[in-house]
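CHAIN AND CONFORMATION:
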Amino acid sequence: MNRKTSSNAMASKAARALNSNGSSKIQKSLAASVLSQRSTSKQTGVAMEDVASRVLQSNKYSNETKSFAASVLSQSNVKR
């Protein structure tokens, strides 16, 4: 089981992104994953790992979206 959780600051940013009309679908998806990982019983799924990895490798996403992606990946299953 993963023992990492989202920080208060990252969770706050994620909540703002989810409530913003200006956030993209992918940003909201990553933000939701960040918020769901406030508890240690949650960890990143394979599909979200793939999405987050692609976001980090692309030049078209904002720094905030990439920070959500990095947070999500940092909480992925180490065995995968």
Observations:
- The CA atoms of residues 3 and 55 lie 24 Å apart.
- The mean pLDDT is 89.
- The first helix runs from residue 8 to 19.
